[in-house]
């Protein structure tokens, strides 16, 4: 695959576009960069919104890194846990995206809207269901054999574009 072929999926969030450009710069003419090509120091601007996911030989997806903004937004840390530990409706959605990237070895972006339990701070901490739209970018990272070994995922919530109901 040539460096001149753009693999960029449609993106609306400039932070995701910048992350894609970083990933693309690390490919060096290959279908995807290796995990060793990615420098955590160079990725500081995205760290809170990043997931790093190990892809096992049997197709299981385990969170190696679960960004702090996800922990803040969802109230729990998935580091070391599997996609299988997510609520069922989320499992199916993310697993399908991750499997598609592993099969194609190509980046994938999508918007998704869902109801999330969002922790509410205050004297009586509680959770409240909120409908939020996120834009997510999934980038493959290879091992020496060009198999997708890890997924680098970033997501950002989009501003609520729905009309307010007064």
Structural summary, described in words:
This protein is of the alpha+beta class and 166 residues long. It has a single domain, classed as Beta-Lactamase, CATH 3.30.450. It is built from three helices and five strands. A five-stranded antiparallel sheet has the order 2-1-5-4-3, with helices on both faces.
What is the CA-based Rg, rounded? 17 Å
- Strand content of the residues, in percent? 25-35%
How many DSSP H or I helices? 3
CATH arch. level architecture: 2-Layer Sandwich
Point out poorly predicted stretches. 1-5, 162-166
* Helical content (DSSP H or I, runs of 4+): 10-25%
* Coarse morphology: globular
Which series of helices and strands comes N to C?
HEEHHEEE
Instruction: Give the class-level CATH name.
Output: Alpha Beta
Taking all residues together, what is the mean pLDDT? 84
Largest sheet strand order:
2-1-5-4-3
Indicate the structural class. alpha+beta
Assign the CATH topology.
Answer: Beta-Lactamase
Our count of domains comes out at: 1
Distance between the termini: 53 Å
The number of E-state strands comes to 5
Largest sheet: 5 strands, antiparallel
